[in-house]
Amino acid sequence: MNLFELLDNLNLILDNNVIYFQGDSFLYLFFSIFKRKLKEKNIISVKSVDLSEMDFASFKTEINFTFLGNRVFYWLGNIDSYTTKIKTELIYFLEKYDGPNIISFFSSDRDISFDKIKFGLVESDKVSKLAQFVFDSKINSDKFLDKFGKLDIDQVIILLYYSKTLGARYKNFLSDWSDQVIETESSLFTLSSLYFSKQKSQFLEYWQKIKSSYSDTFWTVFWQDQLFRAYWFIYYKEQKDPKNLKKISYKLPFSFINGDYKKHSLKELQSTQNRLYITDCTLKQGFGDFQLDFLLIKH
C-alpha cells in the first residue's frame, strides 16, 4: 500500500494486525501527526512502546489481550534503532502474530515480509493531499514544489506550516527564506555522513561548499556535539547498553548508526575532540583560520 492511499482512508490501518512503514529515513514529524490523527478521529487507541526500555516478555503478554474487546494500535517507532537481538526477536515473533491488537513500526529494511506502507519523496500532485491530512483543510499548493522539485514528507509538512501561518506573505518566504529552512538540516546531515564515512574527497568538496554559511563558533559547537555523540555511541554499543545508545544516537547520521561507527575508535574520537578544543581557543583569539579544515581532513 502507498502511504497516500492510507491518508485517503485512515480506517485502512485496521485491516492488518502487523503493519510497517518502509522508507529511506524515519519521519519524526509525520509519525507524530499520524498517531495524533488516529486518536483525534477516534479510529483506534494509540500506545507508543520503546522495546529498548520495556521487557519484551511483558510486551508479548500485553499485546495478546484487549480491554473489553477494544483494540490498541501499538507504535514501536524506528526498529532500526534497536539492537540486532531485539529487532530479530521482534520480527520473528510478529511473523506469527495474529492479533487481537495492531502492531506497527518503521524500518528502512526492504526485506521484512509484512504488509508495507511505502513512502518516498513527495511530488507536486501529492502536496494538497498531505495538506488535507495535516490540517483537515485545503491549502493553496500551486507551484509549491517548483523551487525544490521533490522533498521528503517532513520537509513538505514544515513548508505547509509556514504557508498556513504566513498566508499571503508565504510567496516571499518561499523565494527568499525557504532555502534556509529546508537545506540547513539536510546539508549538515550530509556533511556529517561524509565525515564519519571517511569519504575525504567528497567531504572536503562539500565542506568548502557550505562552510561559509555559518560562523566558526557554530562549526566548533556542531563538531564537538557530533564527536561527543559518536564517542558515546560507540561506547554504549560496546557496553551493549541499548537504552543510552538510543538516546545518544539523536542527531547522528543514519550511515554512522548503521555501520560507519566501525570505522572509528574511542581513542581516535577523543583525540579529535581534544584537538578541536584547542582549535576553538585559537579561533577565538583571531588566529588559525585553516586549523579547523586541517583537523577535519586529517581525522
Label this structure with key terms:
299 residues, alpha/beta, Rossmann fold, Zinc Finger, Delta Prime, domain 3, 5-stranded parallel β-sheet
Span from first to last CA? 44 Å
Number of domains: 3
User: How much helix is in the residues?
Assistant: 40-55%
Arrangement of strands in the largest sheet = 2-3-4-1-5
CATH class of the largest domain: Alpha Beta
Shape: globular
Overall average pLDDT: 81
Count of helical segments? 14
Query: For the CA atoms, what is the radius of gyration?
Result: 22 Å
What does this structure look like?
This protein has 299 residues and is α/β, with parallel strands linked by helices. The chain folds into three domains: 3-118, P-loop containing nucleotide triphosphate hydrolases (Rossmann fold); 124-176, no CATH class; 186-298, Zinc Finger, Delta Prime, domain 3 (Up-down Bundle), CATH 1.20.272.10. Helix content is 53%, strand content 9%. The protein has helices at residues 3-8, 28-40, 56-62, 84-94, 127-135, 153-166, 170-176, 178-196, 200-210, 216-239, 242-248, 254-257, 266-284, 291-298, and strands at 18-22, 45-48, 72-78, 102-107, 115-118. It has a five-stranded parallel sheet, covered by helices on one side. The chain is globular, with a radius of gyration of 22 Å. The model has no long low-confidence stretch (mean pLDDT 81).
